[in-house]
Structure formats: structure tokens, C-alpha cells
Specification:
Elements: H1 7-10, H2 18-24, E1 61-64, E2 67-70, H3 79-83, H4 96-107, E3 113-116, E4 122-124, H5 125-128, E5 148-150, E6 153-155, H6 163-169, E7 173-182, E8 194-205, H7 214-224, E9 231-233, H8 253-290, E10 302-310, E11 313-323, E12 326-336, H9 338-343, E13 349-357, H10 358-366, H11 379-382, E14 407-414, H12 435-446, E15 450-460, E16 467-475, H13 484-502, E17 505-506
Helix pairs in contact: 4-8, 4-10, 7-8, 8-10, 12-13
The structure holds phenylalanine.
Length: 507
């Protein structure tokens, strides 16, 4: 779904080699783990609070980064996810997420752009959704998709949650935010319940430009930006009345076209920087393997603009990059809805905004095959990036440590009989089953020892109308070979969690 679940989370690689990484980046999903597991997660879980094995706990209040929050029946954050709120990988020196942030920051320099990297992950539903014009029934608000502390408070699902407050601060110019964001999702090698995003915006004030001529001022700023030699496909007009409308009541066509042009060049420069660095790092590694000197790739990078939809921008786009034979979606952006500036008390401002997922980019930059690796405290992972943040020329692709065997186990069950999903309910659409709830149980019970979870079979009993599902859980540690006994133990915990938390009946 474009808008909230889009872009910044859904694009990840599938396995260890390069083309696999591009492929993974095209998929969707996410993970978690049991902190007390004697597993991958245990190697770096010193800050994890202990979860009762596979069973949800509903504390009266929770503490996040030193602040206490009262919970209510909306609370749905597992202790494993809570334990990650203090990690802030984007600020951890030489972490690939932090290196990626630095590369992006280098394209948006001060004093025009100010950096905000310390915003707290706990925000209000107003900040995360309402302030950005998300309709009340937007699916992104569902408890199956979003981690709520209580009805009015949640773990931000995107960095756009801070747009309104920065617009309210009113300074013209621009900003970059980097932060951890949280989404309930599937379990696979490209999705994790916590990941990092970067948000950027640039605004101009019509009262502060010469002769009030906004478009001219913006085009002048565009002229000052560097050029690049990427091949850019941009087949659509800057706006389209049905597909990608101009905000007619607020912007002239010239103003919107100027903002769009500045936005597009700025983001093309960013993507050019990222992918040039990825290519250079890969060329170094290949040369080192062959004992030759690195050759910079000559073929120019290809990118394309695709029309998109976000509740808080119009017109909107996604930028895709042609990488290893496929088009990869790398970011979402658009001309900010004027309502945001008006509500923020700065109606004379106009501008653009974008959002980008850092893990996705870091996976491409460093050829990191599994998103779980970012949370590793294993020296075999971390040592590979030492010294890179201060000297980006030292960037090299990640060299995976040996791949450990996988062991999959299936779990089949009947859904709770009382719901329509379980076959026992009446009204159409009264389905109360959501796959993300199962994913969460798996994360809590087996942590980072699960590589992915897939629905392999589903049917409705012709007589009883009950619905049966079969999921395949693929157990594989990134750091060592799991014993049969511990895999069985984890699987038992998953099964128990499904029964106790989701009320399913094991078949
Ligand atoms: N917040 C959007 C997302 O997470 C991305 C975005 C940011 C789109 C800013 C437009 C402008 O998908």
C-alpha cells in the first residue's frame, strides 16, 4: 500500500548473493525475537527486558527512554520491541545505518538544512496520522499494523510524524530527520518491526522571496544545485488533474512545477551519491579479489519517477533506481499539502518533503543479505564497518560469515470458532484474524532465530465453515547452527503462544 506502508519499509532482499539482495528489496515483511533466547538475539540482548516465553504481558505502564506511559486496552507492544527503542542504530558510530545517514546528510548540507536525529519514538496519534491528513479510516491506523501504547499514543510508524512540529518552528530552509520507526509486519529477511527512516524537507516563504516571485526564487535555487549524469526517466507531467493533482487552491502551476523540479533534482543527487558509492565499494571489492586495481563503472545510473499517493503531499512521486537488472523503489516524496503549513501557522510557506528507509539503502550499499544483521552486536558484523563513517572511501561490501543450516517447521491450526474468520461468526467481514498477530507471537517466542514465516496452506471446512491455516516457520540463526533440541523448544513456544494469545486450536 502506498502512503504509509509503502516505500520505506517494503523493499528488501532475499538471500546472500548480490542479485538476491536486489530481489529481497522488492518484497515486504518484518521480525522480532525473544530476548532470553540462547540464540542470535541473546548475543546482543543485554538491554532487552525479559519477556514471558511467547506470552503477551500487558503492563499498566511502560517506560521508554526514561519516560513512563500509561497503557490501556490498545496496548500491543511486545517487550522485545520495547527493548529496541533504546538502540538508535542511526546514531551508533560506524553502524551501516549511521553511515547511510551520513551519506545522505552530505547531500543536504547546512546551513540550509538542519539535522534532527534525536526525536523520541513515542508520538501521539495526532502527530503520526491526523496532522498529516490521514483519514480516520486509513488502514495504517489499525492495531494490526501499528504499535500502540494507548489509544492516543504510539510508536511512530514514520518520520513524517515530526513534519508538522518542524513546520510550526517556521524557519525557512530545510531539515533532515533520522529516526527509528516501528511497524507490525511479516517476518522475512527484509522486514523487521523496527527500522530507520530519514525524512527531508525544503521550504520557501513567499513573503521572503524577491518581489514575492516564489517560482523564480525556487528556480534560482535549483540552478545552484550541482548537476549529475544519471539517466532520468520522467514520462509524466509535473501534475495531473486526476492522477497526481496540483493543489489548485494554493499553488500556481509555475510554483508547483518549480517545487517539483527542485525536489526531483535534490533527490536525484542523493540517489546518485548513494549508488555511486555502492558501485565504487563493489568495484574495490572485485578488484581486491582479482588482484587488479578498481575500475569505476562507466555505465550511467538509470532512475525513474513514478506517480504516487501520500495523504500529506500532492503531487507525489516515488523514485525508482535500476539496480542489478530490476527497478527498485527507494523513496517517497511530494509537494507538501498546504494544510500542513496552514495548521502549523506558516501559511506563506511552500515546500517539498521526502522519506526514505535507511536499512533498505544500507542493504544495497553494503550488500547486507538479512535485515536481522543490523541488530547484531557480533564483532564479525560490526568490525567490517569500522572507520568508514569518518572516511567513506573505505566503504566495502559486507562479507557474510558462513551460512548456517535452516530448519523449517509447520504449524497448522483452526482459527477461533467464534469469529467469522474462524467460520463461526455471522456478519460478512467480521474477520478478526490478522497474520501480523501471528508474526508477533513468533518474534516473541523465537526472536532473531527465525528467518521467515510463510502461509503455506489455508482452507475452509466445507461442513463446519471453520478456517484452517498452515504456516511454515523457517528457523535459522545468523551466527551459529541451531540444535534440534533448541529449535523444537522454540517451536513449542511458538505453538503455545498461538494458543494462549490468539486462541487458535492446533490441528
Ligand atoms: N512517510 C512516508 C512513508 O513512510 C514517506 C514520505 C515522506 C512520503 C515524506 C512523502 C513525503 O511511506
Amino acid at each position: 500500500m502506498v502512503g504509509l506502508r509503502g516505500i520505506v519499509s517494503t523493499l528488501w532482499p532475499r538471500a546472500g548473493n548480490r542479485s538476491d539482495i536486489a530481489l529481497l528489496i522488492k518484497r515486504g515483511g518484518r521480525i522480532s525475537r525473544l530476548p532470553v533466547q540462547p540464540c542470535w538475539r541473546a548475543a546482543y540482548s543485554s538491554d532487552a527486558t525479559s519477556a514471558r516465553q511467547g506470552v503477551a504481558t500487558s503492563p499498566k505502564e511502560v517506560e521508554i527512554n526514561g519516560k513512563k506511559y500509561a497503557t490501556d486496552p490498545w496496548f500491543n507492544v511486545s517487550s522485545t520491541v520495547l527493548s529496541l527503542t533504546s538502540r538508535k542504530l542511526h546514531l551508533q558510530k560506524d553502524h551501516p545505518v549511521a553511515i547511510t545517514r551520513k551519506i545522505i546528510e552530505s547531500v543536504f548540507p547546512p546551513p540550509t538544512y538542519k539535522y534532527y536525529n534525536e526525536f523520541d519514538p513515542v508520538v501521539s496519534t495526532y502527530e503520526n496520522f491526523d496532522s498529516l491528513c490521514f483519514p480516520p479510516d486509513h488502514p495504517g491506523r489499525a492495531r494490526s499494523d501499528t504499535y500502540y501504547i494507548n489509544k492516543d499514543t504510539l510508536l511512530r510508524t514514520h518520520t513524517s510524524a515530526h513534519e508538522a512540529e518542524l513546520f510550526r518552528a517556521g524557519a525557512s530552509g530545510g531539515y533532515l530527520i533520522s529516526a527509528d520507526v516501528y511497524r507490525r509486519d511479516e517476518v522475512d529477511r527484509s522486514h523487521y518491526p523496527v527500522f530507520h527512516q530519514m525524512e527531508g524537507a525544503r521550504v520557501w516563504d513567499r513573503n521572503k522571496v524577491p518581489n514575492g516571485d516564489l517560482a523564480a526564487a525556487i528556480f534560482q535555487d535549483l540552478d545552484r544545485l550541482p548537476k549529475h549524469n544519471m539517466t532520468v526517466e520522467d514520462p509524466n507531467p509535473p501534475f495531473h488533474p486526476d492522477r497526481n493533482p496540483l493543489q489548485v487552491e494554493h499553488h500556481t502551476p509555475e510554483e508547483a512545477a518549480a517545487v517539483a523540479a527542485h525536489l526531483k533534482r535534490s533527490l536525484e543527487l542523493m540517489v546518485n551519491e548513494i549508488f555511486s558509492r555502492a558501485k565504487a565499494a563493489a568495484a574495490f571489492a572485485t578488484a581486491a579479489n582479482n588482484g587488479t586495481s578498481p575500475v569505476e563503472p562507466t555505465e550511467p545510473l538509470r532512475v525513474r519517477w513514478v506517480e504516487a499517493y501520500f495523504p500529506f503531499t500532492s503531487p507525489s512521486w516515488e523514485l525508482e533506481v535500476f539496480y542489478q537488472g530490476d527497478w527498485l523503489e527507494v523513496l517517497g516524496c511530494g509537494v507538501s499539502k498546504q494544510e500542513l503549513h496552514i495548521i502549523a501557522g506558516v501559511p506563506s510557506q511552500i515546500g517539498w518533503a521526502f522519506g526514505i528507509g535507511l536499512e533498505r539503502i544500507a542493504m544495497l550499499l553494503f550488500q547486507i543479505p538479512d535485515i536481522r544483521l543490523f541488530w547484531s552486536r557480533d564483532e564479525r558484523f560490526l568490525s567490517q564497518f569500522r572507520g568508514v563513517e569518518d572516511n567513506l572511501a573505505r566503504m566495502r561490501p559486507f562479507v557474510p560469515f558462513s551460512k548456517h543450516p535452516a530448519c523449517y517447521k509447520d504449524v497448522s491450526f483452526w482459527l477461533k470458532g467464534t469469529s467469522a474468520a474462524g467460520g463461526g461468526g455471522s456478519g460478512k467481514g467480521a474477520v478478526d484474524w490478522h497474520g501480523n498477530d501471528l508474526m508477533e507471537v513468533v518474534r516473541d517466542a523465537a526472536g532473531d532465530c527465525v528467518e521467515d514465516v510463510r502461509l503455506v496452506d489455508e482452507f475452509v471446512h466445507p461442513k463446519t465453515g471453520r478456517r484452517s491455516m498452515c504456516y511454515r516457520i523457517n528457523y535459522r540463526s545468523l551466527e551459529r547452527t541451531l540444535t534440534n533440541a533448541e529449535t523444537n523448544e522454540m517451536h513449542d513456544r511458538v505453538v503455545r503462544g498461538l494458543v494462549e494469545r490468539l486462541g487458535v486450536e492446533i490441528r
